[in-house]
Design a protein that fits this description.
With 323 residues, the protein is of the alpha/beta class. It has helices at 23-39, 60-70, 85-96, 116-125, 143-158, 175-181, 191-198, 221-235, 238-266, 274-307, 318-322, and strands at 10-16, 48-53, 74-79, 102-105, 130-135, 167-174, 202-207, 314-317. Helix 9 (238-266) packs antiparallel against helix 10 (274-307). The longest helix is centred in the C-terminal third of the chain and has 34 residues, at 274-307.
Length: 323
């Protein structure tokens, strides 16, 4: 941790996937923000914005290269193919820690209020290694997105995974935190759950999330569901325990049904029972399929982890060319 007299080298890591519509405005606003922070001697003149191109299909990477040539405080890396937002973010963080004392990650769409960076740096200078930027409200989200997000955070905490409520990936991390993050080798990546598990002194700042400047959100309903499921199964084994508990509940229910059936047989009050039997078979069968599916999900994750394939491959690093 740097003292107040020292000037930290800040890198702002921004994952990009098909962001050609917003990059110029993002660059304009962040250029002004960096200049202001450098002029006030809050950060070093060596500080930079690092764009991470996550295998974009549009002109994003060419725009990033042009910006890096024209702006001394901007650079970028390009991944060999699309690896998903979490892996792209990890690639940026692991690359930036080589050059920076402190790193801030944020989205490219300007929904994260860049003025919050000042407060995050104040918290860092006060001795915090991680500073989480948390939305103070979600009024700009649709009812479905707002409700599902609230359910997700509460459900994750219920399952035992530490998650900061209403926090996405807008955060500040010191170099030593990123050094510890580099020791986490799991393939199934959920950074929102990993950072709280690292520890160190943390702080929270609040901001109001803005509307997207341009373009469309890259998170479809399917992607949001997959992301939530990834987080749940990466940080908790409680779904497996639920299967065991459910099995015992069904067992006790079955014993009750057996006793009830025997009594009915003894007293001569027998019925055909076809409806009851068919419903029972379908109910038990569906539970078995769900249980096998959950177990299979965990086995699949074990399979992915044992292969130990790289989570990302950097095709081009503009920072290396500059140094």
């Amino acid at each position: 941790m740097l003292t107040m007299k020292e000037t930290a080298i800040l890198y702002i890591v921004i994952p990009c996937y098909n962001e050609e519509e917003v990059l110029q405005e993002t660059t304009k606003q962040l250029r002004q923000k960096l200049k202001s922070l450098i002029d006030k001697k809050i950060i070093s003149s060596k500080s930079k914005v690092m764009y991470v191109d996550d295998g974009s299909k549009d002109n994003t990477w060419n725009i990033i290269k042009t910006i890096a040539r024209e702006e001394k405080n901007f650079t970028g890396i390009s991944l060999s193919k699309n690896k998903g937002q979490q892996n792209a973010l990890l690639a940026g963080l692991m690359t930036a820690r080589t050059y920076a004392d402190v790193v801030i990650s944020m989205d490219a769409d300007l929904q994260d209020d860049i003025n919050t960076i000042d407060e995050m740096l104040e918290k860092y200078k006060a001795g915090n290694d991680i500073v989480y930027a948390v939305r103070n409200k979600r009024t700009k989200d649709s009812f479905f997105k707002r409700t599902s997000a609230q359910f997700f955070y509460k459900f994750m905490n219920f399952l035992g995974a530490e998650c900061i409520y209403n926090h996405a990936d807008y955060r500040l991390t010191s170099k030593r935190v990123l050094d510890e993050l580099s020791k986490f080798k799991e393939t199934n990546l959920f950074l929102r759950g990993i950072f709280p598990s690292i520890g160190f002194k943390t702080a929270i700042v609040y901001y109001e999330r803005k509307k997207r400047y341009a373009g469309k959100s890259k998170y479809s309903l399917k992607k949001m569901f997959n992301f939530a499921w990834e987080g749940i199964t990466s940080f908790s084994i409680k779904p497996l325990r639920f299967i065991c508990v459910l099995g015992f509940l069904i067992l006790f229910t079955s014993l009750g049904i057996i006793i009830y059936s025997i009594i009915r047989k003894i007293t001569g009050n027998t019925v055909d029972g076809w409806t009851f039997l068919s419903i029972s078979i379908w109910f038990i069968g569906s539970l078995q399929m769900i249980s096998i599916g959950i177990i299979g999900e965990y086995i699949g994750k074990i399979y992915s982890e044992t292969k130990q394939r790289p989570r990302y491959i950097i095709l081009e690093n503009l920072e290396d060319k500059e140094n």
